[in-house]
Amino acid sequence: MFFFRMIFRSFSRQFKRRLLIAVTVCLSATVSVAMLGVVFDVGDKLNAELSTYGSNITVQPKADAVVNDLYNTGGDANSSASGTSESDPTTFLKESDAPKIKTIFWAFNITNFAPELNIHADVNCASESVDSSSCKASGVPIVGTWFAKTLHMDSGESTVAGMNGMRSWWKLDGSWPKDDSAQGLIGTTLASKLGVTKGDTVTLYKTTVDGSRNKQRITITGIYDSGDSDNNAMYIPSSTAQVLANLPDSIDKIEVKALTTPDNDLARKASKNPNALTQDEWETWYCTAYPSSIAYQIEEVIPGSVAKQVRQVAALQGDVLQKTQAVMVLMTVLSLVAAAIAVANLMAASIGERGSELALLKAIGATDGAVSRLMLAETAVISLVGAIVGALLGSGVAQIVGHVVFGSGITMRPMVFVLVFVLLTLTVLIASFSSIRSILGLKPAEVLHGR
Description:
19% strand; single chain; alpha+beta; 14 strands
């Protein structure tokens, strides 16, 4: 009972200094909870943010993938018509197999995908507003693809896939074409060269493998600016491109946008040779959303395909994630160090002011341990109140960071709060150590006589 009376009396004194300790711990808890909350959830947020800038997995026919590996002819996955290949593809996948991508184990991590048929054709204007004699171009890259195609899966679910979501950074003057139509988009460079604008009609001419000369009239619904050499191309529906090239149900590439977990040693080992994994490693790898495991599962459902992660995107995701987490962890550590210094100074000042009170307690029989426990209990109660308030504020700050930076809330995991309270406990104990040593050095006779 005496112990609790002393705690109560202690709270009634030096209110300002105790309040400063509570505020210091509160601020440290706020920063720690906010930063660690974001750290534990930033992986998915960053992947979702970075995935808006293009695909991170590409699917090709096996023969093309082998040639690309041998001669290093693979181009940027997000610049399909950039002109890296002057000839039309000779090996194909089936467009009808593309929806199978949404049947893999990590189907919900596949946020979008778009098949492509990359061909070349001659272009001739067919608009009254354009001089057709000067509006001609040969060997223009044509990409047959989906724009916003609704797919009805065997499971009864529906999904929308296509370039509308894959090229979100494009600046588009006009509207997206409709799938399975005679509409298309044209890049700004090609549009300037031909002198066409949205609403104009152009005619595409294509000599097929069997020697026939096919043509297709295309209405331009929009002019896009991709910011790269893709501006030299035209995008039309895949069905229209297949008719033009006489290649039914044929595509030569699929771009896939997926939410992935950054590579680690296990993922890098698996990407070299999945068969080298042990059974436990295999199960961990297969059931984790690594780019390599998602690519492997795509290969399982698309016959004759090779799926590869876009190394630049994967490396960027991992690098940005590590740097972001490092900054936030550093801020957490700095806030804890600042809290330790502040608490230590405040406790030392408090003990200095209360020296006579503590000396009196020791003079009437209180042991060093009892006096130390008194000070620790007082500091613990004050710190606990500050930590609880700080945890609540930190959760709010984390949500603000999530909405401002990523456009969505942060999922606060219980581990964050446990970790912060453990770290704060250690911080307060370390900060109190020097103060406790000064208590042990108090000599009641000297202090009470003012020496």
